[in-house]
Amino acid sequence: MKLNLGMIFYEKQSLLILGETGVGKSSFVDKLHRKYAATEPLVSVNLAGLNDNLFESEMFGHIKGAFTGASENKEGFIVKAGRGILFLDEIGELTLRTQKKLLGLLEERMVTPVGSTKSVPFRGQIIAATNKDLYQMVQEKTFREDLYYRICGLCIEMKALRDKRSEIQDALSPFQSKLTQNAYEYLINEYEWPGNYRELKQFIQRLKFTKIEMLDLNEIGSICRGSARPTVKGNYYESLDNFESAYFDHQMKIHSGKVNIAAKEMGISKSTLIAKLKKYGINSLKIKAASQDRSRLKIA
After folding, report:
1. Which domains are present in the chain?
2. Which residue among 80, 109, 212, 213 is the one 20 to 30 A from 146 at the CA level?
3. pTM of this prediction?
4. What is the DSSP string of the chain?
């Protein structure tokens, strides 16, 4: 069944976008906005960053004095979206409590700021996205069935990068001279690219600046996933710490120690990244200095 996207936007129908992490769901929403609603706002909300206490105030807004710390009126994301698009990313991360509040918005199309008795209509469009299997979550009672059917009536599932081999070849062909033939063929024909476009982008960045002129299959793992491989022995918390330590170290190295850029690419706040770096003893300044030294060597 082919979706009539123009009609969906005209009638303000809810739309659900499914796909693995890194397939470009946010970029796709940007394109939809430019094509079908460019004159109206696009408000993007990462729901994974909103806990139960923050959800209602951030989404619906609040009035002055509604709770301790509410020193002035605040316009919520829903009102900011106006007649445009409210993009709810990572909807699968919502708790059952916040799912109920979102369901109320979809059913009533009305917004009541926290502490207020006055409601205003919501005339915008909701687009939701997730990398999770919402149907399975419904079976497990972790996602409301009524909300599921409210948002999944119109659905687009984005393909993983591994299912678009021609795009991989087009992206890597300019760097074929830096790869052995075996490595090049493996990457375009067999490698799964679990991080999808995000991983491909980072891999290309490594190829651009690597000092190695020819990469073979033995080096593909260290370039794609980072040279540090976390141990999975021990209990859950030890394994999680090992993974996070390797992950954040790798991310800082491929982003040359630049905290702002790394945080944006990882989809987390700068403060969260700084806390993680401190926890695992990762020195971003040293990584940045080492990156600059390598650049000077290459220029020389």
Report:
1. 5-157 (3.40.50.300), 161-299 (no CATH)
2. 80
3. 0.69
4. ----HHHHHHTT--EEEE--TTS-HHHHHHHHHHHH-TTS-EEEEEGGG--HHHHHHHHHEE-TTSSTT--S-EE-HHHHHTTSEEEEETGGG--HHHHHHHHHHHHH-EE--BT-S--EE--SEEEEEESS-HHHHHHTTSS-HHHHHHHSSSEEEPPPGGG-HHHHHHHHGGGGGGB-HHHHHHHHHT---TTHHHHHHHHHHHHHH-S-S-B-HHHHHHHHH-S------S-HHHHHHHHHHHHHHHHHHHTTT-HHHHHHHHTS-HHHHHHHHHHTT--HHHHHHHHHHHHHHHH-
